[in-house]
Write a sequence for this structure.
């Protein structure tokens, strides 16, 4: 109950609608080069796993929000909402199914839209999916396609790739804050260590710091071990309203807050090239809405498509001063450190299927918070922060999850 | 294959390094934009074309080894963020030098060059690259 007051006395009591939103089921495919599985195979596999996990039936589903970034240019398939609904066997039921596109943050954006749809009172049960099929294209053609996440006419046109833009940011950051390359490589080492224990991860090999430092150059100063791989994969969640969750005796994880913010599309337009302003703005909103503190966070999943972004994110999420993330990357981000980062293996080891990433992060956070994370389980995990980013930082979507 | 009009409509800006200046606040922008992100609606009808000097310095740079097919013949190439003396920061290649000649702060200026070609029979696309000041 909320009391709306004037200066003297309580005028009106209003019942505040408690439309809390819960994740009641989650599932994902393995991430990797899955040559025998198509875009639609992957989407359906993840969706079914989530629905099974939630113990719901198709008749319970009010809507589907499907995230995808590049199917139009890689697989020559648009109309992804219809594709997912159709091959999930839901077309005849007329269940609304929309594709949400926000580049590499499509997954987080779809999760947020689904969250809002329940929060508004419109829906009770929504399936959120994310899918990307990136290996259906020959050789380096993928670099032409993946550069769609940049400004095509003023960055990619002149020879920029996502790795090159990250490298430009890395060079200036290392120069201005006197950061050694080793600090960036440590982020990949941590991802691989965690990924080695995640059965869904694309790479399950551990990485030594020497291997991470001496890999083949991609865009100097970044090498292959600073860059997330090409990945196929899908992930899905079932979201439900508080009333549905309680009425049907479901267990779930609450979404405490959801926030998104934008920045300029091109790196060069930004005031500071190594400040992820979209992340800074979104995280402030996320913590304000969640009403918890940074010290309450048990672990984070962050969008480290390139190692440099991992460091910038630690800073712009407010866990280190600018230029000081290097103090966290050796010990603090480990599973038993003060702020564990990417227990799933992150984008470097778990994989980077663009549109599926943000949903996959939520799948991992859900497993952790439910105590079902297996070998990577963080003890007494209470709150998780998941950070999904588009392009070179043009959008950031942040969710805080808890019990 | 790309239609000619997509490339043609940007040629004025890419060939001559023309951007826009907001007459409301005085800020200059490249690439061209119709609305000033500082002044918002106050800038409507007040954005005017401005030709930049082409002089600037290297804000950051990378040596690209892994490139899309249309840039494969140029690998390895130096890609940089160039801060023009007028303010805007441009993403472009630095050419006619060894990669080790480039550093943060190196003074550069524009040259008109071929950027890439769209396959064997497609359009040849031109625009700006930068060279180190002598």
């Amino acid at each position: 109950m909320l009391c709306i007051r004037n200066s003297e006395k309580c005028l009106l009591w209003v019942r505040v609608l408690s439309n809390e939103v819960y994740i009641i089921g989650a599932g994902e495919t393995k991430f990797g080069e899955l040559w025998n599985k198509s875009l639609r195979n992957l989407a359906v596999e993840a969706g079914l796993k989530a629905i099974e996990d939630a113990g719901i039936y198709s008749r319970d589903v009010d809507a589907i929000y499907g995230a995808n970034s590049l199917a139009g240019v890689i697989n020559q398939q648009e109309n992804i909402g219809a594709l997912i609904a159709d091959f999930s066997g839901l077309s005849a039921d007329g269940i609304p199914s929309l594709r949400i596109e926000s580049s590499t943050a499509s997954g987080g954006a779809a999760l947020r839209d689904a969250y809002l749809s329940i929060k508004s009172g419109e829906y009770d049960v929504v399936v959120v999916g994310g899918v990307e099929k990136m290996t259906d294209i020959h050789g380096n053609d993928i670099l032409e396609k993946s550069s769609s996440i940049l400004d095509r006419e003023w960055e990619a046109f002149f020879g920029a790739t996502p790795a090159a833009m990250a490298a430009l940011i890395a060079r200036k950051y290392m120069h201005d804050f006197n950061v050694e390359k080793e600090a960036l490589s440590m982020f990949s080492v941590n991802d691989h260590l965690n990924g080695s224990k995640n059965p869904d991860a694309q790479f399950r090999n551990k990485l030594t710091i020497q291997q991470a430092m001496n890999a083949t150059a991609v865009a100097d100063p970044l090498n292959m071990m600073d860059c997330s791989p090409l990945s196929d994969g899908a992930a899905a969640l079932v979201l439900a309203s508080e009333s549905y969750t309680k009425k049907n005796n479901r267990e779930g994880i609450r979404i405490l807050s959801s926030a998104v913010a934008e920045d300029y599309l091109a790196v060069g337009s930004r005031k500071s090239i190594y400040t992820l302003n979209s992340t800074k703005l979104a995280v402030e909103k996320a913590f304000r809405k969640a009403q918890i503190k940074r010290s309450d966070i048990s672990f984070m999943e962050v969008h480290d498509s390139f190692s440099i972004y991992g460091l910038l994110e630690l800073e712009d999420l407010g866990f280190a001063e600018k230029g000081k993330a290097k103090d966290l990357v050796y010990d603090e981000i480990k599973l038993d450190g003060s702020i564990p980062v990417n227990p799933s293996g992150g984008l470097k080891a778990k994989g980077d299927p663009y549109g599926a990433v943000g949903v996959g992060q939520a799948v991992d956070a859900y497993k952790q918070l439910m105590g079902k994370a297996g070998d990577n389980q963080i003890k007494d995990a209470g709150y998780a922060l998941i950070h999904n980013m588009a392009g070179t930082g043009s959008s950031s979507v942040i969710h805080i999850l808890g019990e | 294959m790309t239609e000619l009009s997509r490339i043609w409509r940007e040629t004025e800006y890419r060939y001559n390094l023309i951007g826009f200046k907001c007459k409301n606040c005085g800020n200059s922008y490249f690439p061209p934009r119709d609305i000033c992100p500082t002044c918002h609606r106050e800038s409507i009808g007040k954005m005017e074309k401005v030709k930049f000097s082409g002089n600037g310095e290297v804000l950051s740079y990378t040596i690209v080894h892994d490139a899309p097919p249309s840039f494969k013949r140029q690998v390895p190439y130096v890609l940089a963020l160039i801060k023009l003396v007028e303010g805007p920061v441009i993403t472009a290649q630095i050419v006619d030098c060894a990669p080790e000649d480039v550093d943060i702060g190196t003074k550069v200026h524009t040259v008109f060059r071929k950027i890439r070609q769209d396959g064997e029979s497609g359009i040849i696309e031109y625009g700006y690259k930068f060279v180190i000041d002598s």
Summary: The longest strand of chain A covers residues 232-241.
